[in-house]
Design goal:
Layout (H helix, E strand, L loop, with lengths): L7 H19 L9 H35 L1 E9 L7 E2 L4 E5 L3 H10 L6 H6 L5 H10 L7 H6 L2 H6 L1 H10 L16 H4 L1 H21 L17 H27 E6 L5 E7 L2 E6 L5 E3 L2 E3 L2 E6 L4 E6 L12 H4 L1
Parallel strand pairs: 1-10
Antiparallel strand pairs: 1-2, 1-5, 3-4, 3-6, 6-9, 7-8
Helix pairs in contact: 1-2, 3-11
């Protein structure tokens, strides 16, 4: 939209000419019947009044124009496409212009959390030190599923009491070729060296058997149901993530919000009157959905004085779905 030129100079000139004409007409500048110093004082007073009028008009007209030139504008369109499909507008959803990225705000909110993390949870479990060490190493407490059993090595199965017990119970009816232990419990106290040597020989033979027969590992996770703590951790983690989400939203609203808007039916939105600087266009507690695709944005944008930044948000510049505990429960 073309800008209209200001009418202030023309109006100021008209006022000035009118005032000067009036002063001469009334004899303010030079009147033989009035002392000279009185004319000078009246002239100064009227000129001062005229100056005040002109300054007032200038302050009324110019500052809004200067303010408009010192801020910027952001226009965007948000599109989401399902796998193998065409993009469609993200309609009537709230977008936020933030002074800090949503990811950084979430990290800040998480640091304020006083609830348990995975390592503390593992330390509090009533399990063998070997299994706790394995959980710490793999940053996981899930002891079920095909991915879990495939991740187990012969050393894990033989070296972790809970795993070895589950393996033996699962293969109770199929032990053909499995090594028989030669060590005896009575030797543990009476002849510890012999006991240790025979135990090591048995464990070595068991590891070799498991490595040669990987199919015997499949399904052993069914024997770990009583010691699998993943369901308990998932419930704790879900509550914690909900708390972090709520804290993130609160901090974004109270500390880092610059503007917000809802997209129209074509997926368009805009933020106007934005101070120059670096911002992020984000979504809080919501996702754009199309078919099997669920995405959100945390996209950086720079606002410059008197300029409009145009952004297209799509699958290509979207953030991956938040899954802060995905690795810990897999």
């Amino acid at each position: 939209m073309p800008s209209c030129p200001s009418s202030l100079p023309r109006r100021s000139a008209v006022l000035t000419h009118a005032f000067v004409a009036e002063t001469y007409t009334r004899g303010i500048v030079s009147n033989p019947g009035v002392p000279r110093y009185t004319s000078a004082m009246k002239t100064k007073w009227h000129l001062g009044a005229l100056t005040a009028v002109i300054v007032g008009l200038w302050l009324t007209v110019v500052p809004p124009r200067l303010a408009a030139q010192s801020t910027g504008r952001v226009e965007f369109v948000a599109l989401v496409a399902p796998t193998g499909g065409q993009p469609e507008p993200v309609r009537q959803m709230t977008f936020y212009l933030l002074r800090k990225s949503v990811e950084d705000i979430r990290n800040e909110a998480a640091q304020l959390s006083t609830e348990s993390d995975l390592d503390h949870f593992i330390d509090g479990l009533s399990l063998s030190p070997e299994l706790k060490s394995w959980m710490h190493k793999h940053h996981s407490v899930r002891l079920s599923g095909e991915e879990f059993t495939k991740s187990l090595t012969p050393e894990d199965i033989v070296g972790i009491p809970e795993y070895f017990k589950a393996y033996m119970a699962h293969n109770l009816a199929f032990r053909a070729g499995f090594p028989e232990p030669k060590f005896k419990e009575k030797d543990k106290a009476s002849n510890p060296e012999k006991y240790k040597q025979q135990m090591e020989q048995y464990e070595d033979a068991a590891r070799k058997f498991i490595a040669a027969m990987p199919d015997t590992v499949k399904g052993m996770d069914l024997e770990l149901l009583d010691v699998n703590p993943s369901a308990k951790w998932e419930a704790i983690d879900r509550r914690q993530r909900q708390g972090v989400d709520a804290r993130t939203f609160q901090m974004a609203e109270q500390r880092y919000l610059a503007a917000r808007c809802n997209t129209d039916l074509d997926g368009h939105g805009s933020f106007s009157g934005v101070a120059p600087g670096r911002y992020w266009i984000g979504m809080l507690g919501a996702e754009a959905t199309s078919g099997d695709v669920h995405i959100h944005w945390d996209y950086p944008v720079t606002v410059r004085p008197g300029e409009t930044a145009s952004i297209e948000l799509s699958n290509l510049n979207a953030e991956r779905p938040t899954a802060s505990a995905q690795n810990s429960i897999n």
